[in-house]
């Protein structure tokens, strides 16, 4: 007589509570519509220095260092979301107390025809690996984020509607601020790698 017990019969079954999963996820998460946070979890509110629920109904604008960076990032996201249906980058964001920090951001549109319409976004604080160590202008922050993605000055110029010469001037400024003698060294310093 076989007395083996089927493991599927002994494992308790739990109903999947998606709200609980959302609220307790180990990364910051939110649902947005037209770049307005509809609901965010505890991890996201805490990461940015807000109380739970305080970001609900707020524009993503409050998470950016400046209005210009908020607008330019939105412009950069649209063609990528149109092509892929998702977006991901690392950028400098702003906490409620004004502190700037590097953040990995990933999003997916719920309706591919509306890239900035309804979407799900995750935010991961990467400031321990990559502290913001220099006072940067908004344009320098944008160019730093694109350099970290491995983009050349020519591609950055195209994506930001700047001339390649202007991008090179910002890159030179970043190199001075980070005491980098080469572009490669600058990128290593931006991503927090010491050589």
Would you kindly provide a written description of the structure presented here, covering whatever features stand out?
With 195 residues, the protein is of the alpha+beta class. It has helices at residues 7-10, 18-24, 42-47, 67-84, 138-148, 153-160, 164-177, 183-190, and strands at 28-33, 36-40, 86-94, 100-109, 119-125. Strands 2-1-5-4-3 form a five-stranded antiparallel beta sheet. A hairpin with a 5-residue loop joins strand 3 and strand 4. The longest helix has 18 residues, at 67-84. The radius of gyration is 20 Å and the shape is globular.
List the helices and strands and how they pair.
Elements: H1 7-10, H2 18-24, E1 28-33, E2 36-40, H3 42-47, H4 67-84, E3 86-94, E4 100-109, E5 119-125, H5 138-148, H6 153-160, H7 164-177, H8 183-190
Antiparallel strand pairs: 1-2, 1-5, 3-4, 4-5
Helix pairs in contact: 5-7, 6-7
Describe the structure concisely.
By secondary structure, this protein is of the alpha+beta class.
């Amino acid at each position: 007589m076989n007395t083996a017990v089927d493991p599927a019969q002994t494992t308790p079954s739990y109903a999947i509570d998606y709200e609980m999963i959302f609220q307790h996820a180990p990364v910051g998460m939110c649902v947005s519509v037209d770049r307005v946070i509809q609901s965010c979890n505890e991890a996201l509110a805490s990461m940015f220095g807000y109380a739970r629920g305080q970001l609900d109904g707020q524009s993503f604008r409050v998470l950016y260092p400046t209005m210009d960076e908020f607008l330019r990032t939105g412009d950069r996201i649209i063609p990528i979301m149109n092509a892929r249906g998702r977006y991901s980058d690392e950028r400098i964001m702003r906490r409620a107390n004004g502190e700037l920090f590097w953040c990995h951001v990933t999003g997916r549109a719920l309706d591919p025809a509306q890239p900035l319409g309804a979407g799900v976004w995750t935010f991961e604080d990467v400031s321990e690996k990559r502290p913001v160590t220099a006072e940067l202008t908004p344009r320098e922050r944008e160019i730093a984020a694109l350099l970290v993605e491995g983009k050349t000055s020519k591609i950055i110029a195209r994506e930001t509607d700047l001339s390649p010469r202007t991008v090179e001037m910002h890159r030179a400024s970043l190199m001075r601020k980070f005491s980098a003698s080469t572009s490669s060294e600058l990128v290593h310093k931006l991503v927090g790698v010491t050589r």
